[in-house]
Amino acid sequence: MSARSPKIFIQKTSWVFLALSAMLMVVLILINAEVLVTSLIISSINLMLILYALRMKFFEHMVFKIFFAYHVLTMILPLFMVVTLYSAPDVLEYLVKKFSVMPNDILKGNIIILIYDSILIFAVVLFNKMNFFKKRKGKLFKYYLFDSNKYVLIIIIAFISYSMKLYLVSIGAWFMYEEFDLTQYPFANTAELLQKLDVLLLLFIAYNYKYDKSKFMFILMISIIIISLAFAIISTSKAKLFMILIPVVLLLINFKYKKMYLFGVMILFFSSGPIFDYFMYLRIHNSQSIETNTIEFLNSKKIANEKNIFDDKIILRLGYQMVVARAIRVYDNENFEYKMDYLNNIIGLVPRLLWPEKPVIGIDGNKIGHELGLLHRKDYQTSIGMSNIGEAFYELGYLGVFLVPIIVAFLLVYFSQILEEKFWLGFLLSIMFGLQIGVTDWYNTLLPGLIKSFIIFYFFGLLLNKKYTNEIKLKLKW
Questions:
Q1: How many angstroms separate the CA atoms of 395 and 338, rounded?
Q2: pLDDT of the residue at 250
Q3: Are 170 and 212 in contact (CB under 8 A)?
């Protein structure tokens, strides 16, 4: 991989997104989006702000790219998808019936999102201008344990990862919308971290691809991608699928026909809704044979073959903009009380082995869903995620919208200063921390999650690290 290819790819993509979003805005305003025109303008301004920021020197580090990729996917893109694919009356009906919000609520939500992102970007620039953190070039990434056969290590680490996935499948913790009692399975949190080791392996293969194109490495790469994608798809979790696709995209940038492959990845992600529906149907009707379930599922789709926004699972899964709007509508009232759930970050630092009776920390997503009126009154299994912006408003009201992005900026700048992405371990931790901060719905347990991730991924990354030399052969700079 050349040192400049990923950076050039991002720059060209940024300008393409800017041009397409501008043209799309004109078309939508003239044709189809009259009830959401102002909201679309706000989202477009937000998108252009983020893309402009990512071209600044302060945002060159990979941790920012990963964080904002998921943020744009869930907090900006869904509104464009809604008004592009469906008529204004259908969109209005969808917002009212599915999320109990009106266009004015969407507008208010998008303004809150824009304010949140503006404060975050401003804080990142300010922390860098003030030299709040001194860039460190320590020995953190130069350590190694031993020179060993990397193929054997890859197979062992893959075995650990897939064993943990199977364990989570067996206890019901792998699937979305599945009832699960954490107190009965205290090892589940550790297993959830270890199952992500397949992401580490794919990142390692992407990092070293230029220098190892052997057939055996290629077979390992294809095997890990296929198995990991299969697990992600049956989980019906967009976050798990996104985490696998990130290293896959980094791998595909190395290939000759990368544009075609990347287009295929995009098609896979945006067609995951029906695939998720199918595997969820199999789980619900597990007493029947797969053949019978498949026929019944296809027949149900034929009956409902008319394009219907209420059946669009992609918009439902990515539509955090709508959930944020609903959260603001519900919690912006005279009876609002500040919560103390962010203190879970302190409680979570104590290992359960030392505190067996430690309470289950976190927020009850099912309770939140009922408070927001997004769940049936008899649904005690489904959890609703509000995103970190919705959570900030839920915890601290408007104060959270101003305070939380400053803390997030602090973390992102700190990691960008201490993680040297030209080294394998810095490259690995940059992406994993970017994913951890970006994908996590709830920041009330973010700090324990980051510490656990560092311990797990640094150790296993260290196993794959080669003896350090002064010559840096591969420099990945985004």
A1: 6
A2: 84
A3: no
